Amino acid sequence: MTSEIERLPKSGWAALPVLFVVQIGAIAGLIWAIYDCVDQVRTMPDAARIWPAMHIVAWSLGILIVFVMWFGFFTLQPNTAAVLVLFGAYKGTARRSGFHWANPFYEVIRVSLRARNLNGAKLKVNDLRGNPIEIAAVVVWRVRDTTLAVFDVDDYVHYVEIQSESAVRHLASSYPYDTHEDHELSLRGSMDEVSQALREELQDRLAKAGVVVEEARLSHLAYAPEIAGAMLRRQQAEAIVAARRRIVDGAVGMVQMALEHLEKEKIVDLDTERRAAMISNLLVVLCGEQAAQPVVNAGTLYS
After folding, report:
1. Distance between CA atoms of 251 and 277, rounded to whole angstroms?
2. From CA 39, how far away is CA 247, in angstroms rounded?
3. What are phi and psi of 81, to 5 degrees?
4. Closest residue by Cα to residue 118 from 190, 167, 189, 68
5. Could you point out which of 15, 195, 259, 274 has its C-alpha 20 to 30 Å from the C-alpha of 303?
6. Whole-number Å distance between alpha carbons of 261 and 130
7. Torsion sign, CA atoms 232, 238, 242, 248
């Protein structure tokens, strides 16, 4: 894994007038060398004419070098980094925005540090119980380490897309679509916990690409069309059973509380048969789907 080295390139505004002056000076020097060569060639012997010609070549090379130096200017927008590579060797990363100058032979690879949204496609997978479902996620991510993003993976954007799809598939197979148990997590009923688990798994997968995941949430969740109707009826049945279980648990608790209160206050003494009848009547009233129609007993307790 490559470690990022922050590099501060020279200010482009400081290098611009220097190169401009040097460029003008080199051009003036070349013109002077040409005129001087023309004047001296007439009076100098053939063997000595090489030296004025060498001056022209030297000034021409100087102009060429200064011309190449002009290619060292580059700009960086805010939240953009430049990875500097010299003949295949990593030389550092420039993160400061503005107008800069560096070695003109540097290969400048720009990497955006801005937050990006990945709107994942709808995936058809099986949940923990084997039910086919459709699921999709939205991931907010940004590049944190430019060297890992550029050198340790082939294409970090494509890498994020593939790993996000893989993480969503793994997440969907780890939880049931829905559940009526209070202690069991589900994709539909535990959105915050599932989103946190998705974010943590994505962060583990994308750390090697120098990417930090800021947020990950499910954007689509539904049963597959071919079983949607059947699963809806099953879901309704499970909801009814769960509701009945809660009603029965509550009714039993209320009956127990009523009997304990009667015995504690010594309001009435009930034998086993009357106690059973009272429990039965209370459960019918509390667990019935419709409101009970009471029958008033105007006689004695046992009539």
Report:
1. 15
2. 115
3. -115, 155
4. 167
5. 259
6. 48
7. positive
Q: Name the more confident of 57 and 144.
A: 144
d(CA 189, CA 180): 9
Q: Please answer whether residues 188 and 177 qualify as being in contact, where contact means their C-beta atoms are separated by less than 8 angstroms.
A: yes
Residue 59, pLDDT score:
84
Q: Which residues contact 150 (CB under 8 A, 6 or more apart)?
A: 83, 109, 111, 156
HEC per residue, 194-240: HHHHHHHHHHHHHHHHCEEEEEEEEEEEEECHHHHHHHHHHHHHHHH
At 264-283, the pLDDT tens digits run 766 666 666 666 766 666 66
What is the residue type of 196?
Q
Residues in the chain: 303
Question: How many CA atoms lie less than 13 Å away from 239 in the CB half-sphere?
Answer: 7
pTM reported for the whole predicted model: 0.69
What's the average model confidence in pLDDT over 249-267?
71
Q: Are strands 116-119 and 10-11 parallel, antiparallel or unpaired?
A: unpaired
| Strand pairing category for 98-101 and 123-126 | unpaired
pLDDT at 249 over 90: no
